Amino acid sequence: MGYEEISAEFDKNWKALEKTDLEAKKKGTLLGRYISESYADGSAIYRIVKVGKNTVTIQVVTGIGDDWEIPYWGKQATIKKSYAEQNIGYRDRMAEIFKSDKR
Hints:
- With 103 residues, the protein is an alpha+beta fold.
- It has one domain.
- The chain has helices at residues 3-27, 81-100; strands at 34-39, 42-51, 55-60, 76-80.
- A 4-stranded antiparallel sheet has the order 1-2-3-4, with helices on one face.
- The longest helix is centred in the first third of the chain and has 25 residues, at 3-27.
- The protein starts with a helix and ends with a helix.
- The mean pLDDT is 93.
């Protein structure tokens, strides 16, 4: 597989991730949203696969680029729900800022 095919696959996977994230956002649920955690020279992306009262279970997303995995989380982890909400809230606010900033 060449660079163009790999790049096209990454783009397809990102679009699918963003579509699922937007659908979950519209439904008002964390299930299906993703969080981004800074790591090395980029970010590790984790999708929320289970929502509890005070925690969420996250699973690493692969096939989107570097596919970083946070060592202390591994491929799957349970984290505080408040942390996931804060992470997603920040991402949503930044998206709104850049969407409305038409310089």
